[in-house]
Design goal:
By secondary structure, this protein is of the alpha/beta class. About 35% of the residues lie in helices and about 25% in strands. It folds into two domains: about 170 residues, P-loop containing nucleotide triphosphate hydrolases (Rossmann fold, 3-Layer(aba) Sandwich), CATH 3.40.50.300; about 110 residues, GMP Synthetase, Chain A, domain 3, CATH 3.30.300.20. The structure holds guanosine-5'-diphosphate and magnesium ion.
Length: about 300
């Protein structure tokens, strides 16, 4: 690389891919310094691809956070994997994320398989290094570099923010020279009402178990800004598949729903920088996860 090339401003797209739960959304939020992707300890939290924009003195990196790639069974999960794989064609580089404490498994083999025909630069990111003793990293790095050629292998901890500067520098290296693609103040193209729905869904993921979080979708029915009072009125429906799940979400004397609403409201207020009045309803929509029309209505394609 010549000096002139090195000093050039870079811009382009990078997709963050990996098995469910490896920390893709945590990494995206860390890279942006803002929470736009929701996170939970349960796999398949992210259902759509989420665009995040990082402005750096040397370039602008546009990220696609994607649903985890896995061998999917349900229609919803199959559509999520399709979303993730479709980003391969649209990006300048790929960031394949694995977990330091679980580097080898069937799903990572599957992802390597999907990357076989991809000629774009791929960075291998080993996340969660805070969970293992340092010497344990070497065999993983060794083994992976035998499996395919990576532009670079970068160990990080998205939780503790370790290794991220190195990662950003490596990302800038693989991007083409070019001007900003989005305005500097923009960090995502997602509308605020989508982010609000996602924050509500995150609280459901946080507080419920087994089938309930997966059977949940959130629809914002009303999103009204009352400019003069710096107040936003939001009405949202939490949709589940069965009466029993509705009962769980509402909870004894409505306590569960109240708590979900309180936590979501606080985060939406921080996101919007306004006071929020949040009204939540729970509705049963039988088998929406297998219903193509319902999936389209919810924006899952
Ligand atoms: P995604 O499904 O790949 O988007 O993963 P998430 O970002 O939702 O994270 C899944 C879980 O891993 C959450 O409980 C995170 O707090 C946790 N996590 C993410 N990064 C790290 C890390 O660097 N170290 C540790 N210990 N946990 C992490
Ligand atoms: Mg995610």
């Amino acid at each position: 690389m010549t000096e002139a090339e090195k000093s050039q401003f870079k811009s382009g797209f990078i997709s963050l891919i990996g098995r469910p739960n490896v920390g893709k959304s945590t990494l995206l939020n860390l890279l942006l310094g803002e929470k736009i992707a929701i996170i939970s300890d349960k796999p398949q939290t992210t259902r759509n691809r989420i665009l995040g924009i990082k402005n750096h003195p040397d370039g602008q990196i546009v990220f696609w956070d994607t649903p985890g790639i896995h061998r999917a069974r349900s229609r919803l999960n199959q559509s999520m994997v399709k979303v993730a794989l479709a980003t391969y064609k649209e990006v300048d580089g790929i960031c394949f994320i694995i977990e330091a404490n679980r580097p080898f498994d069937d799903e990572n083999d599957f992802i390597l398989e999907t990357l076989k025909t991809v000629e774009k630069p791929v960075l291998l990111v080993i996340n969660k290094i805070d969970l293992i003793p340092k010497p344990d990293l070497l065999p993983t790095m060794d083994e992976y570099s035998r499996l395919r050629s990576f532009e670079q292998i970068i160990p990080i901890s998205a939780l503790l923010g370790q290794g991220v500067e190195v990662l950003v520098a490596e990302m800038l290296k693989i991007l083409p020279a070019g001007p900003r693609l989005f305005p500097e103040e923009m960090i995502t193209d997602l509308p605020e009402r989508f982010l609000a729905a996602e924050l509500i869904r995150e609280k459901v993921f946080l507080r419920t178990h087994e089938e309930v979080p997966y059977a949940t979708a959130v629809v914002v029915e009303e999103f009204k800004e009352r400019g003069e009072k710096n107040l936003v009125v939001i009405k949202a429906t939490i949709q589940v598949e069965r009466e029993s799940q509705k009962g769980i979400l509402i909870g004894e004397k409505g306590r569960m729903l109240k708590e979900i609403g309180r936590q979501a409201r606080e985060e939406i207020e921080a996101l919007l920088g306004a006071k929020v009045f949040l009204e939540l309803w729970v509705k049963v929509e039988k088998n929406w996860r297998e219903d193509p029309a319902a999936l389209r209505r919810l924006g899952y394609r």
